[in-house]
From TrEMBL:
Pfam family, one: GCN5L1
Region: Disordered, residue numbers: 1-21
Homology family: Belongs to the BLOC1S1 family.
Domain of life assignment: Eukaryota
Organism in which the protein naturally occurs: Alosa alosa
Reactions catalysed, as given in the entry: L-lysyl-[protein] + acetyl-CoA = N(6)-acetyl-L-lysyl-[protein] + CoA + H(+)
InterPro entries: BLOC1S1
A cellular component annotation (GO) from this entry: BLOC-1 complex
BP terms from Gene Ontology: endosomal transport
The name this protein goes by in its record: Biogenesis of lysosome-related organelles complex 1 subunit 1
Amino acid sequence: MLSRLLKEHQAKQNERKELQERRRREAIAAATSLTEALVDHLNVGVAQAYVNQRKLDHEVKTLQVQAGQFAKQTAQWISMVEGFNQALKEIGDVENWARSIEMDMRTIATALEYVHKGQLQTS
C-alpha cells in the first residue's frame, strides 16, 4: 500500500511537472509570438518612416536641381534686361546725336542761304 501511494504520488508529481513544463513552453511560445508581433508592428512603422525619408530626400534633390536651374534662368533674364537697357541707352544716344547733327545741318543750311541771298543782292 505504501509503495502504491508512493507510485501514485510520483505519478502525480510527474504529471504536475509535465503540466508545468507544457505551460512553461506555452508561455514561452506566447511571449515569443507577442514579441514577434510587436517587433513586426514596429518594423512596419520604421519601414514606412524609411520610405518617407527616401521620398523626402528625392524631393529635396529635385528641388535643389530646380532651384539651380531657376537661378541660372533668372541670371539669364537679368543679363537680357541689362542688355536691353544698354541698347535703349545707345538708341537714345544715337537719337541725340542725330538731332545734334540735324540742328548743325540746319544752321549750316540757314547760313548758306543767308550768304547766297547776300551775294544775290550785291550782284
